[in-house]
Amino acid sequence: MTAVGVPEPELERLRPRDVERYLYQRGWRPGGRVRYSDRWEREWDGRPRRVLLPLDRELADYTDRMADLIGALAELEGRPPAAVHQDLTLSGLDVQYIRTMPRTPSGTIPVQAAVLAVTSARDLLMAAACDTVLDGPRLVHPRRKPQRAKDFVDNARFGPSAPGSYVFQVQVPLPEEGPQGHLFEDVPEWDMAPEPFARRVSRRMYEAVSAARSAAYDADDLDDADPFTSAVDEGVSADLCEALAGMGGHDGREGRDEASLHGFSLSFGWSPRWPVPYGSGPLEFSPRDVRILREGAQDLRRQAPERGVTIVGRTTKLKRAADIGPGDVTVVARLMRENGDLVGQERQIHIHLTEAEYDRATEAHRDRRDLRIEGDLTRRGNYHELTRITGFDVL
Length: 395
Prior knowledge:
- The protein is α+β, with helices and mostly antiparallel strands and 395 residues long.
- The protein is built from eleven helices and 13 strands.
- The longest helix has 26 residues.
- The chain is elongated.
- The termini are far apart.
């Protein structure tokens, strides 16, 4: 154990470049080279201060010099050396702190709520990763997740819990920087490699969670779930809302009242290796927000289209603005499985057809023949709509 109480192997693992970024982000500036160390300077309480950052990890006294630096920073910042050391060790990670507030003694959480919170944290990672990978926002993410999103989730890990209610820590490792030099090594703020995928996912997660919180507030004010739909472009999806609701204790069962739920907050810690272009304070959710998030998720799922379905039925209404051109039809139809079986109840389905399709639908209606049409099926209130037509046949 060293003078600052941090084990020597832990000090050996600290990278000078990460410590350099820590210093730079806290207002320190390089002041020249002193043998095998860099001198960093700044004003502190009106007095000039200096610390030395050892640069060569192969030096025999590297850990002693790093311990001296941590001790000096701890004294200036008024924090325990262990806290300063922890911040330095997290420099290669983006970290999400999930603070749950169950009605149990501080530092504890019911087992079932803990299991739900852990799986929800995983689902939140997956939702943000899918939104980053997929081409465009989705109301509901596909059941078969993109491999890159699955790899991202596999690479994330839980860190130690912390006191105060019950705090989970999700760590997202960022890639190591290459061994080659950078263009702006003298200015750490500029000396950035291109933003890695893991950081893009963390940033998208913050934006989406922030948008979901605003949507929950607006939905409560308006007594309408439309704000969730409006926030889809910002990364809000049914999957993301369900994951957030799970952190508040909502497991999706019907009849859960607010008394059975708990509030939570989500804070983001960012690795100093890449800049974050905005402030990102804690995002807090009340038990009421948890219930509204779950309702928002249900509404998004209701709106989500069933992709690539086949319907078979007969037209009951045809309408177009002129004698030629595209038109709208209403079909009373059932779903057709891949084996040809018709399943489910008859539904009233609205479809917009091209001119050629509309003409054929008109002939089929006159001859009392069925249509078989393929596309994406979406529920719209008390009727359905088939869009993105990929197949059209008269039977």
